Amino acid sequence: METISFSLNSEKRKAIDKIASLLERSRSEILNDAVDAYLQVQQWQLEYIKEGLRP
């Protein structure tokens, strides 16, 4: 694991913390899940676009 830092507005942080609390998980776990989901969607979308561009 690596530590990174980025800016996030306080409303989003509060929402993440609320989800983490309700799920009894850490903020890091919630953020890792969110990044995983984002990457899956982006990778799928890019592959789908590449397929559409193939002759």
Q: What does this protein structure show overall?
A:
The chain has two helices and no strands. By secondary structure, it is mostly helical. The longest helix has 27 residues, at 27-53. The radius of gyration is 16 Å and the shape is elongated. The relative contact order is 0.08. The mean pLDDT is 94.
Assembly status: single chain
Tell me the fraction of residues in β-strands, as a range: under 5%
Helix percent band: over 70%
Taking the sheet with the most strands, its summary is:
none
> Could you name the ranges where pLDDT drops below 50 across 5 or more consecutive residues?
none
Could you say which overall geometry the principal axes of the C-alpha atoms support?
elongated
Q: So how many helices? A: 2
User: End-to-end span in angstroms?
Assistant: 40 Å
Provide the succession of SSEs. HH
Structural class: mainly alpha
